[in-house]
Design goal:
Layout (H helix, E strand, L loop, with lengths): L18 H14 L9 E4 L3 H4 L5 H8 L4 E4 L1 H13 L3 H18 L2 H18 L16 H13 L1 H14 L5 H13 L2 H4 L1
Parallel strand pairs: 1-2
Helix pairs in contact: 5-7, 5-9, 6-8, 8-9
């Protein structure tokens, strides 16, 4: 009847990220679920060379076993890349994404800096006399559109605590590293209307 039916089959930890290992894992899963490769008519991956490479990529290796398993670039991944590229034409949005990424990376890159943020959040709770729902800073992946929301939201939810954290990092590292200078620049930027807007 040509009705499409999808089932999630498996999520597994790969011992290695090379094409040979990935193909073996796929073939093993198909075998365990009694799904013959000869019945496969499509493959869908991102455009990474390991997956889509035309010489030794996963798609090429699967196609060598079953030629009718046509490779298509993942539409969701293509959409993410298109949105990422089109958002670069909006300077306000483009800059905001860079700022969010820089803020999160600067704080998360060091347990000491992450500890400063946590201490400020805890002090804020004590000062207010309530337990706040603290959210950890979420990393921003430029090619996964859905993670951007989580990352931006984590910065907004912690905005004032982040400004204080960056100020403390600047004072603590003023003459010792580039992190102090970067923290000062990011704190100054966060205090502008353009950034918050």
């Amino acid at each position: 009847t040509f009705n499409i039916h999808e089932d999630f089959l498996e999520l597994c930890l790969l011992p290695k990220g090379d094409a040979e290992t990935i193909v073996k894992v796929i073939q093993d899963a198909l075998l365990r679920f009694q799904l013959p490769v000869r019945d496969c008519r499509g493959q869908c991956y991102d455009g990474a060379s390991v997956m889509a490479g035309n010489i030794t990529g996963v798609s090429t290796r699967i196609s060598s076993v079953e030629a009718r398993a046509v490779f298509l670039h993942c539409f969701a991944h293509s959409l993410n890349l298109s949105i990422q590229e089109s958002s670069r034409s909006l300077p306000l949005y483009r800059d905001m994404i860079v700022y969010v990424k820089d803020i999160v990376n600067l704080i998360r890159a060091s347990p000491k800096r992450a500890g400063i943020l946590l201490a400020i959040q805890q002090a804020d709770e004590v000062a207010r006399g309530v337990v706040l729902s603290r959210k950890q800073l979420r990393p921003l992946c430029p090619t996964r559109w859905t993670t951007r929301h989580e990352s931006i939201e984590s910065v907004l939810d912690n905005y004032s605590s982040i400004i204080q954290t960056l100020a403390e990092i600047h004072v603590a590292l003023q003459d010792k590293s580039d992190a102090g200078t970067k923290a000062n620049g990011l704190a100054s930027m966060m205090n502008t209307f353009g950034c918050y807007f």
